[in-house]
Structures are given as structure tokens and as C-alpha cells.
Amino acid sequence: MNQTEKAELFGTLHRKGNPVILYNIWDAGTAKAVTEAGAKALATGSWSVAAANGFGDGQKLPMEVLIETARSITAVNDLPLSVDFEGGYSTEPAGAAANVAKLIDAGAVGINFEDQKVGGTGLHPVEAQAARIRTIREMAEGRGIDFFINARTDLFLQEGDGSRHAGLVDAAIERGKAYAAAGASGFFVPGLIEPALIEAVCAASTLPVNIMMKAGAPDPADLARLGVSRISYGPGPYRTMMAKLKEAAAAIYTAAG
Predict the structure, then answer these.
(1) pLDDT in tens, 29-84
(2) How many domains are contained in the chain?
(3) For the segment 79-96, what is each residue's pLDDT rounded down to a tens digit?
(4) How much is the pTM?
(5) What DSSP letter does each residue of 9-48 carry, written as one string?
(6) What confidence category does residue 257 fall into, taking pLDDT thresholds of 50, 70 and 90?
(7) 18: nearest Cα among 234, 237, 231
């Protein structure tokens, strides 16, 4: 498949009630592993890519390293690739769009694009985030690619008290509507795990809704019934793999004395 075909395929995989499963990867090797396991598409996780290169999350990984990671994956793997691009490495619409263009050149067909102020506090105003999404969409259209912009709101992640999440649903829905109008392709609500609230967001959203798996979240079958279109795993796969590596290494060193 060429890149245009991959982008079209990636979009069609987002089906309400029949979600695409994205077991997040961080390099070409993990991409190969999940492909052989049956993945239909690939998605990096920013936390995992950063950790694998010795950096913390929050755009501390140099953008050039992230772009080369994407290029190394697409060079050896024919599945559609979405890249967790955090805040686009720029607060300005034109800067974010120029950076996304580099990812397109690296072969990616989609991004996660978050509305928190990376390195700061709080969220970007709705209008400002919509302007960034709109500029990215215009750039992608100019490149002739149906690029998948998975617009992420950090409302729920930034509120650690789950009992307060119900009070954020209306604000999340309004952000989703604004992002859709600006040209977003999907709506990502990490941190939301309460079934009734997930169902409410899915019912109100015109965009495919992405839920991130974490402790306490409904299982994939239940998420499908709630109307979810995309399920991702964030840093979970990396943490699981590193724990197993550490355990295996510790056993060897202990046995060796």
C-alpha cells in the first residue's frame, strides 16, 4: 500500500461498536512483534518512545528522534502508523503543522494531538486548540492525504479524582465538537473509565471515540458495547515488557551469584 491507501484504511478501521485495537509500540522491533500478533494498524505511545530512548514524557524526547523512530517503523512495516505527537512540539498553529508535515514525510498517516499545555499547566483554550487542528488539517489536505488527527482532551487525565469526572463530560463534549468542526478525525479521552460517562461521550460525539486502557477500565468487549471506536494501551505494553525483562535479568544475576 502507498501512504494514501494506508491513511484511507486507517480511517475505515475506526468503527463504532467494533473498535480498532492499538497495542502501543515504541520502535521497529515492537512494531514487528504486534504485526505478527495480528495487529491491523500501529500506534506509538509518547511515554514509551521517550522512555525507550532515555527521556521522560512531555516532549522531552527530541522531535528529530521521534521522527526517525517513525521513519524506521514505516521503512520495514506496511501497516498504517499513527504517532503520538503530544502537543506537536509547538504552541503555534503554523509551527505544529510544519512539524506534522515532517511526520507525514516519515510515512505516518495519523497523530494523537493533545490539548494540554505541554510543560505548563492546564489546557489550551478551545479556540486556540481548534486553530491548531485546523491548520494541521489544511496542511494535510494540501499534501493530498486523509491524515487522521486524533484530537485528545486531557480534561480527565488532569483530574485525578474520578468522582469529579461526571462534571467534566459536558466540557469534554464541547471540546470534541469544536475539534470536529476544525477538522479532527477522532476524539481521544484518556483517563475516562466510568462506563456511563464513556457511553455519554460516545453518544454525543460525531467523531470516533478513543479510550485508553488502564486499571479499572471496562474490557474491550464492554467498550465496544458502549460505542467506542478505538482502544489504545498507552504506556502499558512498555511497562509490562520492561518488568518482565527486569525479572528475567534479576533471575540470571541471582543465579550467577
Answers:
(1) 999 999 999 999 999 999 999 999 999 999 999 999 999 999 999 999 999 999 99
(2) 1
(3) 999 999 999 999 999 999
(4) 0.97
(5) HHHHT--TTSPEEE--B-SHHHHHHHHHTT-SSEEB-HHH
(6) confident
(7) 231
Whether residue 169 contacts residue 200, with contact meaning beta carbons closer than 8 Å, is answered with yes
Cell numbers at residue 103, please?
A: 511526520
Phi, psi (5° rounding) for residue 26?
-145, 0
Q: What is the CA radius of gyration of the chain?
A: 18
Domain that residue 137 falls in:
3-256
Tracing cell 511515554 back to the chain, one arrives at 47
Q: The domain that contains 8 carries what CATH number? A: 3.20.20.60
Question: What separation in angstroms does the CA of 10 have from each of 43, 121, 150?
Answer: 11, 32, 12
Q: Which phi and psi angles does 51 have, rounded to 5°?
A: -60, -40
